[in-house]
Specification:
alpha/beta, three-stranded parallel beta sheet, 2 helices, Triosephosphate_isomerase, isomerase
């Protein structure tokens, strides 16, 4: 069996619904190699929206949040 590449990324706590749409649009329209597994981790408040609009071949995972407004935090919800 041929191994697939795995690419994962997360939103952290940066962004907004507008920024989310830019990222989503890139994943929807960008070429995704069938030999690469792509997974994105989003703050839990965006989980259902992102899963609904991304192609099924893109995995969606939840990430934690933190007590400050934004930044590179992924602490507890």
């Amino acid at each position: 069996m041929v191994r697939k590449f795995f690419v994962g990324g997360n939103w952290k706590m940066n962004g907004s619904k507008g920024v989310n749409q830019e990222i989503i649009q890139t994943l929807v329209t960008g070429p995704l190699d069938d030999n690469t597994e792509v997974v994105v981790a989003v703050p839990s408040i965006y989980l259902s929206e992102v899963r609904r609009v991304l192609p099924s071949k893109v995995g969606v995972s939840a990430q934690n949040a933190y007590k400050v407004a934004k930044g590179a935090f992924t602490g507890e919800i």
